[in-house]
Design a protein that fits this description.
15-stranded antiparallel β-sheet; about 5% helix; single chain; Outer membrane phospholipase (ompla), Chain C; two-stranded antiparallel sheet; mainly beta; about 260 residues
Amino acid sequence: MIANRTVPGWRRWGLAAALAGVSAAPAAAQTEFQFQYGNLVNPFSAESAPSRILTFQQASGWSLGDSFFFIDYIDDDLVDGFNDKDFYGEWYPTLSFGRMSGRTVGGGALRDVALIGGINFGGDADFFKYLPGIRLSWAAPGFFFLNTDFTAFIDGNTGSAAPRTSNSWMFDVNWGAGFDVGTQSFAFFGHAEYIHRVTDEYGNEVRSWILAQPQLVWDLGKAVSGQANELFLGGEYQYWPNKLGTDTDENLVQLLIIWRL
């Protein structure tokens, strides 16, 4: 359940592959620290600069659903009021119809339906959105999880930095899968979202955008010390046309390191 951190939609559903594990054990929780490095663009000036992102995130389960939370700290090499020692976070709790009823909700490939409630919040931009909606969870061979989320995108900005906007909607696909190549283990996860255009309080159009963030990581801990599912090394490909509703497009690969507790 989003990039850099004054931004809506830099969501890291894909990094929460643990959600599949906690579905079987509702009391479980999985915590990660992450580091990303790449040459990100300021969509308002079109200038790009090396950027560092530190992330704390946790995926957990409870008796009637799941919860996913992350908060990012980001800093880049430009002093321009964008991504300058800023933070951005998102939280998505769910309420599963399957867990509430004690039986499978759906049929065939559809394995569950859940209510989802989300919030997105940013620091310097004083950005805030509410995202209530529906999640459909799918059974797919080779996947830890595969979800499609349909939510509203309701404005909660104060207008002090990020302008107030009209309300909108979001569609998001998020997934997690694992595979082995010989003795080496890999994980492939990520998400792709569409957020529909809005109009800000000054009458300006904020364009629709697509944000896709597929991520491929190698289980470095298993390869080096035999300790699996703790330390991962890989990359994230980010494709973001109309970044933050502007006419600037972003297309890059970032270094990704994950330390899982």
